Amino acid sequence: MKVYGTPLCIDCRNFVAICQNRGIEIEYVNITESTKTLKEYLVLRDTHPAFEPKRGLEKIGIPFIMLGDKYTFNVDEAFSWIGQEPVREEEIIEKRPEEA
Length: 100
Description:
Distance between the termini: 30 Å
Radius of gyration: 14 Å
Largest sheet: 4 strands, mixed
Number of strands: 4
């Protein structure tokens, strides 16, 4: 599974932590790590059909998860591709301030 994200994003941090805790190996592309990775992501965001609903909404579109020809922004959907259960509330390491 290839995942585009950034440590600046709470959803990305939670996804990575859950994968680590479940022993799921992912290829994580930190889009804020370098200009090269940011450009790679921007090409995807500007051209991939999955981003069509996000364009013009001031959304970054991460985490963006890909596996073969499948793609999603939904963590539970991505987990279903590999036979994993949906995320349980107790697995969420970091809650948004309004949820705390």
